[in-house]
Amino acid sequence: MTATTRHRVPLSDLDDLAVGRMAPATAGRMRAAERGRRMLMLRAVVEAAQAARAGSGSPLSPLTTPLDLLMRVERDHPDVVTDLLDHPGLGIWAVRMLDRLRTPQSEHEGTCALWQELGYLHALAAAAALRAGCATDIDLPVLGDGVPLPTLGRMALPEDPAGPGRHQVAVLRIPASGPARLTVADRTFSLPADPGLADGGWQPLRRVADGTLVLDDSDPYRDFRTAPQAAAPLTPAEAGHWQSMLEAADAALLRRHPHAAALRATALRVLVPLPEAPRYRPTSASYNEAFGSALMSLHQDTGDLAATLVHEARHSVLNGLLHQLPLCADDDEGENGENRDDGKGEGEAADAGPELLYAPWRGDPRPASGLLHGAYSFAGVADFWRVERHALHGTAARLAHFEFALWSQAVTEALRTLESRARLTPLGQRFVAAMITQAAAWESEPVPADVAALARQEAADLKAVWRARHTHPDTEGVRLLARAWRHGTDPHTLPAVPSEVRTDPRYGPPDPRGELRRATLAGPGAASAHAHGGSYAAGRAPALTAPDLALCEGDAEGAAHGYAQVLAGDPDAPSAWVGLGLALATAGESTAAHALLHRPEVVRAVHRTLARDGEGAPPDVRALSDWVGRIPAVCGTPPP
After folding, report:
1. I need a labelling partner for 416 at 20 to 30 A (CA). Which of 52, 60, 126, 595 fits?
2. How far apart are CA 315 and CA 311, in angstroms?
3. Which residues are paired to 271 by β-bridges?
4. Residue whose C-alpha is closest to residue 565's, from 510, 620, 528
5. Nearest to 222 by CA among 66, 409, 92, 406
6. How far apart are CA 429 and CA 409, in angstroms?
7. What are phi and psi of 305, to 5 degrees?
């Protein structure tokens, strides 16, 4: 295959990408760099397989066979191989194979045989030959009840009376003229002349949005989170729903968001469909070695779907950029920070790992690269809703105003954190500075006052719950405060109690109370209906529902009373402590509210210590919060 070349990124590309703009030349350079990376990975897999003698005992032909076929196709139809190298499944497969070939096979028990996984290269070569009309015979692995041909679709095999999995190898014969045929044991199936059409057992990939977006429900490596899996094809009704929703979302991007549409068309070309997500709880994910693709649930709203397309396209862009340029000096940027980067310790020293930071869209602490990924993706989301809110009416417009106000504030906070606390490279500093300039212009954008207040409450809620979950105050300092409370010490005389970030693995997603805020904007009764619906109730402690509703509907005293009752039964509940703080803020008890929203971990830890020391009844949560809020370091110093 063609040798790789050295790739360069002009500073103008960096500046344009920072604000979500991708010119055709920039897109061409990024995709060329990704293809070069895939070629190197493909070569590394073949060399590792040969070194490990991984082909011994395989019923398939040696790996040199599909490689020779790919080079043959490339000589006459280089565009076919170029498109194949763009296929995200190739990147996922290559990473998985390199890991499997370099680790003991005992660690991979329960997955399909090594030769079957290596056979994905045969399937890629077969797809290339079929697309190019290159006459050949090639053997292929059977996966589950079908034979996948990446970038084209799969041949579904009829049920075998002898049981599934009896036949593991198929042979694809592509003649010089006439239909291609797939043979499994004594059965032969013809493939349609146009592989984009369903015919018999052939299940083609579906192309939507003027053919620029593929719905991939058949590639065994479509989902980076799992081992290779057999197809779970969409039903015709599901496929039709996906198609209509995606075409409407893409049309909205083309009509009102030309820069986002151009970014999507280049950086997001394959969607792996996931089941429909509950309202206000979309699911999507991407992976740095699957440039050009994303997993995504079907949304219930076209605007939400379009915003998620923008979000995931930006993740893909940043993954491609980070393959060429380091932007953070001390983070492992090998994985998508929103979905795959796991924090490893904290502190300033290099051997302690990257410092863990607050990301407003996450429930867990993130390293700087993860925060950068999220800030970049949500900047696209904020800008989408900034424009979209003026094209909508009624409750839809109010929800759009809310999303813009929330995410523009979140992105601004994240960028300030990156600017002040992350070890950015000079190019990273330039990239973040351009994003800061763009975000600064959003601050003058008008938002209805009540919606802006709700967005500020949501931002405060997310941050305070994160602190209550993942920050831990100094043990001796907490004991000092507990003794001071018992002795009636004036809180103004007490010292600071430092806290440190330690990830609590019990908490993943952000607190869901924001769903009720969004439902409140959808109209009377919507919040109550959502709170008692299946998706919200299934993931929420029942005792929190009533005070959550009271808070979001403006009943501050009712909410405060409800959260205090929750804490009487579960004094460790992070969401209840923060909910109490939000209710007290609305009720005008600013000192107690400040303590609970800025240092909830301190109030909770002191309360826990007092409850366990056996000296009388646990303190009143409102009184204790007010007392902690009068400590100078709490009321006057930003949290660490």
Report:
1. 595
2. 7
3. 215, 294
4. 620
5. 92
6. 20
7. -65, -45
